[in-house]
Amino acid sequence: MPPDVLVQMLDFRSIYTSPSEWYNMLFSRKQVISIYLASIVIALRRLRPCLISQLSTIYSSLMKF
Fold it and tell me: According to the lineage, what is the superkingdom (predicted)?
């Protein structure tokens, strides 16, 4: 990797010049992760409904903290 590219990556002013690009990148990544998690949940629900209920109770108890 050339050093000027590294300097550009470390230059934090580039973040503030194009916030929409950063937002789009983060948002698309969040969408991909949520779709992935949803497919896992659907697959688990088809396999073992009791496991899903246990996971949901654990998740809800974690969200209370």
Answer: Eukaryota
